[in-house]
Every structure is written in C-alpha cells, then in structure tokens.
Amino acid sequence: MRKTLFKLLAVALTVCMMIPLFTVGSFAKTTTKYQGKSLVILGDSIAAGFGLAPGSTDMVSQILQMPHGEFVANSWPLAIRDKYGFSKETSVNLSRTMWRCDEFLRLLDPAFEADLCRPENTFEQYMSDYLMFFTEVTAPGDALRLARQIKGVIAQADVLVFSLCSNDIMTAAICKPLMLPFYQVFGRQAGYALASVTQGRLQLPTTPEGLAKFALGTLEFDDLATDARKRTQTFFRNYDRLLGIIYRLNPDVEIYTMGMTQPFKGLKTINGQDSTLFAPLNVETIEKIRTYVTKQSRYAGRVKYVDCSDVGGHGFGDAYSVQFLLDFVVHVHPNAEGHKLITKHVSAAFNK
Question: What's the pLDDT at 177?
C-alpha cells in the first residue's frame, strides 16, 4: 500500500514539476524558429516599405527616398526577419515599388519577356516599362542588378513571402486610362529607355491589327471595374507561372502568399458618400484572390495564405479633391501601424 501511495505521489510530483516547463514553452517567443536561415521577400511597394521614409509623407518626398531592396525601419519584412531570427546576411528583400508579377517574370522568364514584347502587346509592355521606371530613375541600374541576383537569391531561400497582387490588378487598372493618352500623344518611343533594360530591342508590327494597337495602345476601352476583373484573371495565370519558376529554382522553399490589403475602406466621394467603385471592387478582388490562392491555384495545397484584408492605407480625404490625387501614391500604402498588423498576420501563418 505504501509503495503504491509512494508511486502515486512520485507521479503527481513529476507532473507538477513538468507544468512550469510546458507553461514556459507555451508563452516563449518564437524568436529563433528560423535562426540563421534565409528569408526572401518577393513583393511590391508595401513589402518594399514605401511610404515609411522619415519626414514628410508627401508623394515627392517619399518617391525621392524610395527603397530598393532594404529592410526598411517599421516595415513588416524587417519585423519578421528579426522576430524569427532569420540571417541578416542571407535574407533579401527583392520587392520593388510599382512592380507586379509581370516585371519579375520579365527578369525570370525569357519566354514571358518575348511574348510581352510582341507588337500586339505593345501597350502592356509600355505600362510595364513605366511601372519599372520609378525605381530605375531613383537608382539607375537597379533593374539590371536585380536581374543578375534574383535567381540565386530565390534558389538559396528557406522561406519566401510572396506579396504581389495589388499592382497587378488595382494599380494597373487605375493607371491605364492615365497612361494611355501619353502613349497616344508621344508614341511608343517614350518607353525605349526602359525597354533597353530588358529585351534591348523593339519589335515592329507586321499586321493591320498590330499596327492599330501599336498606334493606339489598345483596341479595348473597358471601364475600370471590367479592366480590373480581366487583370485579376491575368494575375492568377502569372501567379502560377511565377510560383512554378520559384519551385523549379528551389523545390524545398516554404512559400507564404499574402492577400490584398484594403486601402479604400471608408473612402468618401461626392457629398461625403462612401465610394461605390474603389472600395467594393477592392473587397471583391480580395475575395477572389483568397479563393484562388487557397482553393483553385495548382499550388493551393503547397503555399500558406496570409489574409491582410483588414489592413488599410494611410487614409484618404474626399476622392474628388485635388489633394486626393497628390496623396494617392502614398495613401494607398499602410503606415507603420498597418505594417504592425501585417506582421501579426504573417506571424500567425508562421506559427500554424
């Protein structure tokens, strides 16, 4: 009887001694989960940290201080790198402001570049050249440097966070009607400088349709919502194509795909009314991306989705004010608090 009682007491004592260990473990910070490993961020201006430069938040000031692959202070890539113990030497932020899947595919896939540079796609190439222009003009040679390093960086990554979609869809749809008149007035030659960074030559049209598209930029004049929906489908194709390249370069990499943020939430138009275009279209696109990445993509079971639908921008005033256009470039990006919220969502995905 005494032996049995002693055994029971011993077991109970052992359990009591182990409880603190489990408790400590459950509350411990995961700061060394990826100690010494390589984190690679493949993203757009949000992941690049645009809008977080110190000083004035006006558009010109932020563009002049535009990041080119740094882990920017107060940005979610820096917070994630340091929180989980990723190597500062081998972790790389490949993100660039205004870039989409298209621009990264141009560096990674010669077949994509050749197709984009066909005369019938001339306006899409023109848009791509100009979306690359801002990072290039603020750091000449940036695209060529990135082209030389990108494959090696992806090949050595342990974890890659994919943060592209907003520019592919919303930004491109908004920019198209603004860029088209410039194309039609000044002609294709305005894009020569950036075209030389990629394919190095310009093909000429050989058919009547090609000549018309070369002259006019496009034969499709869709409204913004229709264009955004078409671009959503294009993004899905480019997303799978880009992930296929990444997995061929690095079959063992862990990939996390981030969803679209919601910068237009609460945007006001005439008479203080909520926007009936930007905000609803933004929400519609968020849902489509979530569904595709998690259920329909050929890589749906392989990547982890990071929902960012509750992350806003700097905040807008009236959509029909002059200041709205001046602030737009900065205000569609999350501020420091928004980056903290993204960090929380990425951390939740890492800890699953």
Answer: 76
